[in-house]
Design a protein that fits this description.
Layout lengths: L2 E5 L3 H13 L3 E5 L2 H10 L4 E4 L8 H10 L3 E6 L4 H9 L4 E4 L4 H14 L14 E2 L2 E2 L3 H13 L6 E4 L6 H10 L8 E5 L8 H6 L16 H4 L4 E5 L6 H13 L1 E3 L6 E3 L3 E6 L3 H6 L5 H7 L2 E4 L9 H17 L4 E2 L1 H9 L5 H15 L4 E2 L27 H15 L4 H8 L3 H13 L17
Parallel strand pairs: 1-2, 1-3, 3-4, 4-5, 8-13, 8-14, 9-10, 10-13, 15-16
Antiparallel strand pairs: 6-7, 11-12
Helix pairs in contact: 2-3, 13-15, 16-17, 17-18
């Protein structure tokens, strides 16, 4: 019989959870404080721990650490959820993070899953050599970080928010999370929220009943029903209307939704992975993303590096794309040394998608077996005698991206001296330092962020 440990200082909540645990076939131990929970862990390691973080007698994280050490699944149930707490808990091996009041049907599903497996599902792991992970290719250090994050979060049911420029492979990350989870045998449904007409997106998400509007001659199942038991990938989440964001938030909190044309709720068990090519904080400030939805989605935020930040992965990916074209076409084309060097120097504003298309064009236009450098895009960086004191911007580049490139270029020009950089940019040292911290947190290379006596004044 699987064993359940409940940590909560509310007697009524403990009893409700204990009754539900017994219904699902568990033996149950209860603790009202951290000390009692640690004693129970020593007496009998549980298969599952349901824990509140805010309990008497110490930090609930201590219980998470000890539970992970004895290979127990841990689910946090708290009325004081924050992104920092969620991320810290996940790093300690927590498998899920639920906000009170908890949907009991959703919790019952979780209890039955753990009872059925009597142990943790195997974690996703990168292939030997760390060059591949799912459909992703790359051996740079920034990609190794991405692989480790996926391996850590995949076995849980946590919502994930993937942030990255267009073409960086956000859907591949979502697929890898799905394949590394216990849901791998269930549907993976990908939705581009920006590609659906605003007046149709609610119908597509939640479905409709027959007769709910003119032309609705049959019942239609939406994406949530189609993804039941599996993973729903919501790309370009900031393109969703505010009204629909409210409904999405309710589904995430309760595990229930209503089809268009009915007031009957339908339960669903769906893990959501969302993605955006905007900085989420800026999307909230610009009115593109509800703050409450942001915090619910970003239980585990991930930042995908731009291709220009991935070093030799550029050449590795280009060669992989060429190998595929050679295999399909029965050819043995190769890159010239000059072409490879130009690959390294190019900014790749369209990221992996642009690189793949560039290789395809060069392959098609090649007159011999060697792909000439002239067929490879020129760099947007200062190169081949260009002015290193200039920053070239693309038409349509976001203001946030333009700001970042200008700030980092000015910092480099000033030799990393932040006071001088702030003065040149016309901002306060504190504003500059806050920006640099945000860029570093997002995975960008910020030289000597915490170094130097000058920082004491910022």
């Amino acid at each position: 019989m699987p064993h359940l440990l409940i940590l909560d200082d509310d007697d009524l909540i403990r009893e409700i959870l204990a009754d539900l645990g017994r219904e699902c076939g568990y033996s149950v131990a209860q603790a009202a404080c951290v000390k009692d929970a640690l004693i129970q862990l020593d007496m009998r390691p549980p298969d599952l721990v349901l824990a509140d973080l805010c309990v008497p007698g110490g930090d609930g994280m201590e219980v998470c650490r000890n539970a992970a050490a004895v290979d127990s699944e841990v689910v946090i149930i708290t009325g004081h959820g924050t992104v920092d707490n969620a991320v810290q808990a996940l790093r300690l091996g927590v498998n899920d993070y639920l906000i009170k009041p908890v949907c009991m049907d959703r919790l019952r599903t979780l209890l039955l899953r753990v009872a059925g497996t009597r142990g943790k599902p195997g974690r996703a792991a990168p292939d030997t050599g760390q060059r591949h992970f799912g459909s992703m290719i790359g051996e740079s250090e920034v990609m190794q970080t991405v692989y480790r994050q996926i391996a850590r979060v995949a076995p849980s049911s946590m919502t994930v928010l993937v942030v990255g420029e267009s073409g960086t492979g956000k859907e591949l990350v979502a697929q890898a999370i799905h394949q590394g989870s216990p849901r791998r045998g269930k549907p993976f449904v990908a939705v581009n929220c920006g590609a659906i007409a605003p007046n149709l997106i609610e119908n597509e998400m939640f479905g409709h009943e027959r007769g709910s509007f003119t032309g609705a001659d049959r019942q239609h199942k939406g994406y949530f029903e189609r993804a039941d038991g599996g993973t729903l990938f919501l790309d370009e989440i900031t393109e969703m209307s505010f009204d629909l964001q409210v409904k999405l938030l309710r589904v995430l909190e309760t595990g229930r939704f209503m089809r268009v044309g009915t007031h009957q709720e339908i339960a669903c068990d769906v893990r959501v992975v969302a993605a955006t090519n905007r900085f989420p904080e800026e999307a909230v400030r610009d009115g593109k993303l509800r703050e409450d939805l942001y915090y619910r989605l970003a239980v585990f935020p991930m930042v995908l590096p731009a291709l220009r930040m991935r070093g030799e992965d550029i050449v590795l990916l280009a060669q992989r794309f060429l190998d595929q074209l050679n295999a399909d076409g029965g050819t043995s084309n190769r890159f010239s040394a000059e072409a490879i060097e130009r690959f390294r120097r190019h900014d790749w504003p369209g990221n992996v998608r642009e690189l793949r298309n560039a290789v395809r064009r060069a392959y098609i236009m090649a007159e011999g077996e060697e792909l000439d450098a002239l067929l490879v895009p020129r760099s947007a960086r200062a190169e081949e005698g260009g002015d290193p004191d200039r920053v070239t911007l693309r038409v349509g580049e976001t203001l946030a991206e333009a700001d970042r490139r200008l700030i980092l270029a000015t910092l480099s020009c000033c030799g990393g001296v932040k006071k001088q950089t702030a003065a040149m940019l016309g901002v306060s040292p504190k504003t500059l330092y806050n920006r640099l911290e945000a860029y570093a947190a997002a995975g960008y290379d910020v030289p000597d962020l915490h170094g130097g006596a000058e920082n004491a004044e910022t």
